[in-house]
Design a protein that fits this description.
Length: about 475
């Protein structure tokens, strides 16, 4: 069924591609361009200017904007072929309808007490099958919007701004990946790890309060100058809850609002010259942050409660427990070449580094980075070509436990223990992505994407698919992604 769906998708994007090569690219600057970033509340916007497929909706959007309401919607669709390796070969396609509303409550209500107060709510509807858990088996998802097919509440919050907008407080259902961990250049890539790192998604309970499992939280942000921003937040420690071992099934509709999994505290400081009229020829953004999670049981990866290796047949099987977890990270995002005076030909790069304790975290070191270049073809100033890489290192404790298992298996007399001798020692997962983004119209883009994953999940044995019990091979994926803004 999905092979037929994939063929249909190829035909559609093929027509789009032909149209793209014959049409000029257009710049875009509307209020619905960056749903993952800070909300925009325009006083005026020409919705009929061609930036969105449905335009002004017969005047509805302009009237709504005048009343303080911004209505946004976009559709994302991918079709990928796992050409080789992974859990199994195959083709999958998935679509996501993402709609959201932003409201300037002061303008909408005309109540002075609500001036500088804003509300936001988002909704996701996903169709199709996710390719990563079925065919690839990697830490990071092939697509930034890949998730369980369902209808789900996204972020929903109220924000109050003070000091002429320099200080703001936001509370509600939040995602850390909306404002923390972000490298602006990394947002051009499709793999999910370039948004919310696969490192944090792997080690935090429920994958952390991020897409597609946002959760209760609050954050405060202070920007004393255009170049300096300080943020701190407190999020639910487990956005999924424990009613199901699969986080997305435990919180299938985004309405669990779990408050029983502890608290994740996070802080980030940023310095940036990438703002309007900064006067800097090669602007950059530099961030440092840290997170700390409390009131949650984190299991030791190697030792039990009495100090024996968990791989030892004499072990109690009960891992040592830690009451908290923590991590630090840093980000450099830099324009490397600004090109012509109009800024069309632009080379940018980014680098992110994160680390957390080895004794309780499966991934203890994370690194990603990449380069993007806009305007690679004359006459197409908004097309983009990019290459990125992500590295997840399996912690020393996990590797040591694997070695312990192999050592004990070497002396085991039972077939069950002897079989574990064949299990590899986990090491790392490395993902490389190359893409070309084509601006077809102001409201439609098409991505041609190739990804290769070395050692999915760190070099493990397959637990599903036709090769159960065998080492998961490196995976190569070829795909198409399109985004339509309504």
């Amino acid at each position: 069924m999905w092979r037929r769906g994939y063929a249909g998708a190829v035909i559609v994007v093929g027509v789009m591609l032909g149209f793209a090569l014959g049409c000029p690219a257009h710049a875009d600057g509307g209020p619905c361009d960056a749903p993952a970033g800070p909300a925009q509340y325009p006083d005026k916007f020409d919705w009929s200017g061609g930036s969105y497929l449905l335009g002004d909706l017969q005047g509805v959007r302009n009237k709504a904007t005048e009343a303080g309401v911004t209505l946004c919607s976009q559709y994302n669709l991918y079709a990928y072929d796992n050409a080789r390796g992974g859990l199994k070969r195959g083709v999958d396609a998935q679509g996501q309808l993402f709609s959201w509303i932003d409201i300037d409550l002061g303008k909408f209500s005309r109540v002075d007490a609500l001036s500088d107060t804003f509300a936001h709510a988002g909704y996701y509807s996903l169709q199709g099958r996710s390719i990563t858990p079925r065919e690839v088996g990697s830490f990071s998802s092939v697509s930034f919007f890949e998730a369980l097919s369902t209808n789900r509440l996204g972020t929903a919050w109220i924000e109050r701004r003070f000091l002429d907008g320099k200080l703001s407080l936001r509370a509600g259902q939040l995602g850390m990946d909306d404002e923390f961990f972000l490298a602006p250049t990394g947002s051009a890539f499709l793999n999910s790890t370039f948004g919310f790192p696969s490192w944090t998604g792997t080690v935090l309970p429920g994958g952390g309060a991020a897409y597609s499992l946002q959760g209760p939280g609050t954050r405060v942000k202070y920007s004393p100058t255009d170049s300096v921003t300080l943020m701190a937040g407190a999020f639910t420690g487990d956005p999924a809850g424990r009613s199901n071992a699969v986080p997305q099934l435990a919180n299938r509709y985004g309405t669990t609002f779990n408050l029983n999994g502890g608290t994740l505290w996070i802080g980030e400081a940023a310095y940036s010259t990438a703002y309007a009229n900064s006067g800097v020829a090669l602007p950059g953004t530099y961030k440092i942050g840290a997170w700390f999670e409390t009131r949650h049981d984190f299991n030791a990866l190697r030792f039990d409660t009495i100090g024996l290796s968990l791989a030892d047949p004499a072990s109690s099987g009960r891992p040592k427990r830690y009451g908290n977890d923590f991590g630090v990270y840093g980000i450099v995002d830099q324009t490397l070449f600004s090109g012509e005076k109009d800024g069309v030909h632009k080379l940018s790069g980014f680098l992110r580094l994160g680390a957390s304790p080895s004794d309780r975290d499966l991934v203890d070191l994370y690194l990603d980075g990449g380069l993007t270049f806009t305007g690679p073809i004359p006459g197409r100033p908004t097309d983009l070509v990019g290459i990125g890489m992500a590295y997840d290192r399996i912690s020393n404790a996990a590797r040591s436990r694997d070695r312990d298992a192999r050592a004990f298996a070497a002396f085991a007399s039972t077939p069950a223990l002897g079989a574990s001798q064949l299990a590899p020692v986990r090491d790392q997962e490395v993902m490389i992505e190359a893409l070309y983004t084509i601006t077809i119209t102001p409201w439609c883009t098409l991505d041609l994407d190739v990804q290769h994953v070395f050692h999915p999940s760190g070099h493990v044995l397959a637990t599903s698919g036709p090769n159960i019990g065998k080492v998961v091979k490196d995976a190569t994926l070829i795909g198409l992604n399109t985004q339509i803004k309504f």
